[in-house]
Amino acid sequence: MTSNRTATKFALVVLAVLCAAAMASAGTIRGVSADGEDSNAPNWLLLGRSKSIPLAANGKTSTMTREIVCLSQDVENAFPSPTLTLSGSCDKGDYMYVFQFQSTSANVGVSIGKLSGFDPLNVKNFGVMICDSSTNTIAMCTNDPTGTHIPNFTAVAAKTSVTFTVPNTFPTYPAGTAEQGQGLTFFVITQQSAPLPMGLPSVGIR
Length: 206
Hints:
Blueprint: H1 2-23, E1 24-25, E2 28-31, H2 41-44, E3 45-47, E4 53-57, E5 60-70, E6 94-102, E7 106-113, E8 126-130, E9 154-157, E10 162-169, E11 184-191, E12 202-205
Parallel strand pairs: 2-8
Antiparallel strand pairs: 1-9, 3-5, 4-5, 5-6, 6-11, 7-10, 7-12, 8-11, 9-10
């Protein structure tokens, strides 16, 4: 009995350590080449770049723009015979939310919450988006094609949220195309059990 109890405690400790290691990560660098190309944008670009939104907290300020991509290139309205009750959705429920930030503050944290269908243990589900493709010039991304100027950000993921922290001075980047925008661009991927209702994330800085 004692040996079984000891083994169980050891297994729980190992599991806790593994979970903690998976949930605190540097995140992933993803290129827009994985989204699709300009020519098939109606299939993957669900919601284009928003207007700039000001954010402020704890004496820090930032501006943010956002867009939504259908990870499986399955924008419902782009189908030859769309399901009308699913209009405005990604047919499989796989959403990628993209957020672009500019800031003159230091040590900025970006908190993205209210995530529906988010797997925090898969580091491919969150990170920084870079402009790595000349065939995709309309997806929002960080204009750093090789990813060599991405800061050593950290990401802490939980069941319904992920927080990115950018140490020291917030980085600046040259402007891309009008659609690519300008700034440091984070992404978060969710896999909803149904395409609608869509869970729109909350965004704030800290």
